[in-house]
Design brief:
- By secondary structure, this protein is an alpha+beta fold.
- The protein contains 3 helices and 7 strands.
- The protein has 2 domains: about 70 residues, no CATH class; about 35 residues.
- It is elongated, with a radius of gyration of 19 Å.
Length: about 110
Amino acid sequence: MKEEQILLDEQGLKVTNARFIAGGQTYAMSGITSVRLIKVPQLKVFAWILIVTGIFFIFIPTIIGIIMLRKQLPPWAVGLSTASGAVNAYFTKDGAFAERVVGALNDAMIARG
């Protein structure tokens, strides 16, 4: 049996030729059929409209707008396609890191043979 090779181990993520571990979830490389980088749409304009509206009218929209800004998903996701379906396995604000994760996952898929 091949020895497990670590291709990426940063920021709580680990990619080997056998598995991908993200957020406490482990994905077997043998079950991943494709990997893609996803730009997550942001709703910042709507949140800012609520904040400005809140300043002029009432504070509730302001509070909701601030909560929306704080709860936004990071703008990048690592998407996996598996035999069970598609899943966004990891979100990050660092697009360059997300690209490295996708690259490491692609290398892992090639290494598994």
